[in-house]
Amino acid sequence: PPSPPPSPPPPQSPPAPPSPPLSVLNCIAGAFPPDRFRRSIHPFLGADEGRTDITDGGFDMYDYGNELRILKAGGDASSPLPYAHKCGSGSYASASNAPAAYYTCAPELTQAGKADFFFAEVRSVDGAPITGFRVQGDLRAQSDTGAVSYNGQATYSGAPGEDEGFRSGDYYGYYKTVTDGQAEGVPTVNHVVVTRGRHRHWAPDWRPSSFLNDDWDELRFDDDSGATGDALFYLLFASDDRENGKSFTEEELRAVFEMVADCAQPLAAPRPPPSPPSPPPSPPPPQSPPAPPSPPLSVLNCIAGAFPPDRFRRSIHPFLGADEGRTDITDGGFDMYDYGNELRILKAGGDASSPLPYAHKCGSGSYASASNAPAAYYTCAPELTQAGKADFFFAEVRSVDGAPITGFRVQGDLRAQSDTGAVSYNGQATYSGAPGEDEGFRSGDYYGYYKTVTDGQSPPEHYCTGFNCDPTVNHLIVTRGRYRHHVSSDTNDDMDVVTYDDPSGAPGDVLYYLLFASLDFDAGKEFTEEEIHRLFEKVVGCANLVERGGGISPPPSPPSSPPPPPPPSPPPSP
Question: Can you name the residues that pair with 100 across neighbouring β-strands?
């Protein structure tokens, strides 16, 4: 008899959403608020995990607002998206009835229990553009004297070229800000939505004044240039600044757009859905040394987003020569270095490791092993403003055996620093052993030690001859646990050493190092202690943010010893 017809194939399950590029979020968190903000941020309540709206953000901010929906082909909206906070690690959540994946975060950067901003990222999972995105709900007690401001109107009406929103490459930015018009009272509520591809933007400014209570903010994809439209970033923030005014200017809102676009451009390349799992690997050979952990690159990306800090009054001098695989900088340009920035890890007993080859992992990758020290590390020299030149140099070092990192040394030749130059640093008392006088910067378990070397020249005009060319060279070392700090007073010597010395039992298991320079003839080349302290705070803030979210992988435990063989059985009785 003929065979029965084959069973129909099972329906295909929707593609799994990719793992989130949380480095974009951490980059934004490190850079927020932008340095062009003249208003202070108002932290708010209620953006809790699992909710689909903010019931009351405090001070009459919201009455069930900030409800997020994804628009589908044909214009229907998805169900409200439950807040799925992935602030340091985790996977995207699936939008239940739309072909998209997303995650959210409400970072508590300045006050426990209150969010400084709310962030959401949405990504397409079927390769098609995200049709649209909508924020809706009730803003509560906005007054009749308030106002709604937004950009991108022309993209909604279809008249091109008049106002298409902010733009940077394939990224467009759309803002909406609502104020109650009162000097005191309800915080100003601000949205900035950044999309890959042009969208039409609509906010209800044409409605009666009573609709100043309306949180409605909608975008629809409308790009005939071939832009993918596959990624969307949303920020909500507020202000109740009674001294400087609560209403943000377009320049300030543009600064938020530029911050997000800068963070997204190098990091937010779409990731394909995961491949099916490969067969299990062969077991490793017994007693192999522990592999260094995968790097928490979100710390680096957070720092890159926050560099330079907003209190820096001097401009950064990009430099040459920090190339992959090198162990020093031969010449950074303008007489900066003559084989300097050589990095070594100190071992128990005081011996130093071999120089660490620069192992640049600026977006992904694994730690490199220090060849003859129980540590793992990676480096990066981000080219943020000029191709071929690094704005700063970053290294992270981690213990892999559970013991504190004994020490860390920078050495080499700074080249042509002059006799009129000077060396400044902090943490002297920790090296001399006199506690309590100057233990460096401190925040919780983290300590910060800086060294800055200047040639002492300050030309009266915009020219560069002789020693006037030498940039100021600055180090900042941030450690988990107290260290002793020692530097060379020779302005040609790059020597900068920290050695572990913490009686409190702080783990001493991680160390961050930043090198940066300045050749600013207008504002002066020498950084103040306040400016360097601000950078220390940014590094610690980035490290704490990532650790609270579980983004740092713990070093692996050493392999356990094999169990002892059982005792031999007694011989049988005769």
Answer: 124
- Report yes or no: 193 and 236 within 8 Å, Cβ to Cβ: no
Can you tell me the distance from the alpha carbon of 191 to that of 235, in angstroms, rounded to the nearest whole number? 6
Kindly state the tokens that stand for 447: 């300590």
Tell the burial category of 2 from Cβ atoms under 10 Å away from its Cβ (0-12, 13-18, 19+): exposed
For tokens 């020569």, what's the residue? 321
Residue recorded with tokens 């070229």: 161
- What is the H or E stretch that residue 259 is in? helix 250-267
pLDDT tens sequence across 518-542: 876 665 677 888 889 989 988 998 8
- Measure the CA–CA gap between 111 and 415, rounded to whole angstroms: 46
Band the pLDDT of 551: cuts 50, 70, 90.
very low
CA distance 406 to 14: 50
CB 452 within 8 A of CB 399: no
Residue from 50, 227, 49, 67 nearest 139 by CA: 67
pTM tops 0.70, yes or no: no
**Dist CA 84 CA 49 (whole Å):** 6
For tokens 């649209």, the residue is 132
Give the contacts of 291 (CB within 8 A, at least 6 positions apart): 556
Place of tokens 């006037």: 468
Q: Find the mean pLDDT for residues 113-142.
A: 88
